[in-house]
Specification:
By secondary structure, the protein is of the alpha/beta class. It has helices spanning about 5-30, 40-60, 65-80, 100-110, 120-130, 150-155, 170-180, 200-210, 225-230, 240-250, 265-285, 290-310, 325-335, 340-350, 355-360, 365-380, 385-395, 400-410, 425-435; strands at about 90-95, 115, 145-150, 160-165, 185-190, 215-220, 235-240, 255-260. It folds into three domains: about 5-25 and about 40-65; about 80-265, 3-Layer(aba) Sandwich (Rossmann fold); about 270-435, N-(1-d-carboxylethyl)-l-norvaline Dehydrogenase, domain 2, CATH 1.10.1040. Strands 3-2-1-4-5-6-7-8 form an eight-stranded mixed sheet, with helices on both faces. Strand 4 (about 160-165), helix 7 and strand 5 form a beta-alpha-beta unit. It is globular. It starts with a helix and ends in a 6-residue tail after the last helix.
């Protein structure tokens, strides 16, 4: 017997003895003998046990084959996840942008009857022929089970859940168009943003246009390209309906994509909408080559603004500590894959808003959200200095550096909104922040 093997057997035997001793101690305590939990003998045996377990785990780790684990995960992903459900879920995804495409592809890969609706008939033919969304996700082949449709009636009739992933500007019109074809389907919004001029969130529009329909909203740190690359990601489904939450989790959960549940519709939706504002500010800051301290300050003060606005709108502030809040905020503010980050970066480099939007070639919801939230915050007296500053730079033509310096000099405040009261009221700080701005 080799010396290493002998030592290993001795270590395993000692570990078993330590376990037996610990179990004996526990049994004696349960039988009524009074023994202190700080008894040095118990602590010594537990520390010894932990050391032996760590040594054994280190030896066993060499037997792990990362390639075999990856192969097993990928094999599991190829198996339909919906096969254990009472019936195969029938899903429609409206909107052929990057996120709608990624989610419909994920559902199809999970074994759901998944149909992606795109308005343009020629685009549908291209998708059917090439199975690649050339405009939004070039280079990624879509699952062979994913269906494509340009006729809205055919796409939504007899489905279980309709996921709406169109821009916020087209959301209301889309709901009006599908209303004649609804017969009990649930609606889930994948759109992050606010309707221009009404400050309506997508859940508000659903309730207005489709009263009585079961609905939910989905949001999280979900960069579509990374989802297509099978990078581990997660999202949140928020709904008052437990059945709908479970159905969405069943349809979209996979080895690399997790779905968490919430009943705070307002908080989840606001997190997804508001973070776009701060992605623009972070992209703009990056164009000035700011340091990590500045980025960290901007990120955390953005989170404070989001939660402050959320509470004023009836949301739970704790929701903003989750995936749809700080999770989505971090992903959107730190990645060049984010459309809003790219818009901010182009603006910081001197491009006009019109030129930046044209160069992007896609919808950047944050531009409209800045206008909506700025006006709402001013009206309600909610302290939103970063939002006001961005509005001043983008829409009032104020110099970015001057606005930034004003931000650094404005008022004293406590760090965490709901832990310590502020020295100054929101109204006083708002007045100081907006002093000298043009009349709205």
């Amino acid at each position: 017997m080799s010396a290493d093997k002998k030592n290993n057997e001795v270590e395993d035997k000692e570990m078993d003895q330590a376990q037996t001793a610990a179990n004996t101690e526990a049994t004696d305590t349960e039988s009524g003998e009074e023994k202190s939990v700080f008894n040095s003998g118990i602590l010594a045996s537990l520390f010894d046990k932990a050391t032996k377990v760590g040594a054994k785990a280190k030896r066993d780790q060499s037997a792990i084959n990362p390639e075999e684990i990856e192969k097993t995960v990928r094999d599991n992903m190829s198996k339909p996840k919906g096969s254990n459900a009472p019936h195969q879920l029938r899903l429609a995804f409206l909107g052929g942008g990057s996120f709608g495409t990624a989610m419909s592809n994920l559902a199809a890969r999970n074994g759901c009857d998944s149909t992606l609706w795109v308005r343009n008939k020629r685009t549908v033919k291209s998708l059917q022929k090439n199975r690649v969304n050339k405009k939004y996700l070039p280079g990624y082949t879509l699952d062979e089970r994913l269906k494509f449709e340009h006729d809205l009636k055919t796409a939504v009739q007899d489905k279980d859940i309709i996921f709406v992933a169109v821009p916020s500007s087209a959301f209301r019109e889309t709901l009006k168009n599908i209303r004649p074809y609804l017969s009990g389907q649930s609606i889930v919004s994948l759109t992050k943003g606010m309707e221009k001029d009404t400050f309506s969130l997508m859940s508000d529009i659903i309730e207005q246009e489709l009263p009585g329909v079961n609905f939910g909203v989905m949001s999280g740190p979900n960069l579509a390209v990374e989802i297509m690359q099978n990078m581990p990601s997660a999202s949140v489904i928020a709904s008052d309906s437990e059945l709908l939450r479970h159905a969405v989790q069943s349809a979209l959960h996979s080895a690399f994509f997790r779905i968490f549940a919430s009943d705070d519709i307002k908080g989840v939706e606001l997190g997804g909408a508001l973070k776009n504002i701060y992605a623009i500010s972070m992209g703009m800051a990056a164009s000035y080559n700011v340091g990590e301290n500045t980025k960290a300050m901007l990120l955390t003060r953005a989170l404070a603004e989001m939660s402050r606005f959320g509470v004023a709108s009836g949301a739970n502030p704790l929701t903003f500590l989750g995936l749809s809040g700080v999770g989505d905020l971090y992903a959107t503010c730190s990645s060049e894959l984010s459309r809003n980050y790219r818009i901010g970066n182009m603006l910081g480099k001197g491009l006009s808003l019109e030129a930046a939007i044209k160069k992007l070639g896609q919808t950047a919801e944050g531009v409209n959200t800045i206008q909506q939230v700025h006006e709402k915050a001013m009206k309600l007296g909610i302290y939103m200095p970063i939002t006001h500053a961005l509005h001043a730079v983008i829409f009032d033509d104020q110099a970015a550096l001057g606005v930034a310096l004003n931000l650094m000099e404005s008022g004293f405040r406590s760090d965490v909104e709901f832990v310590m009261p502020h020295e100054y009221s929101n109204e006083a700080l708002n007045a100081q922040m907006t002093a000298g701005m043009p009349d709205q």
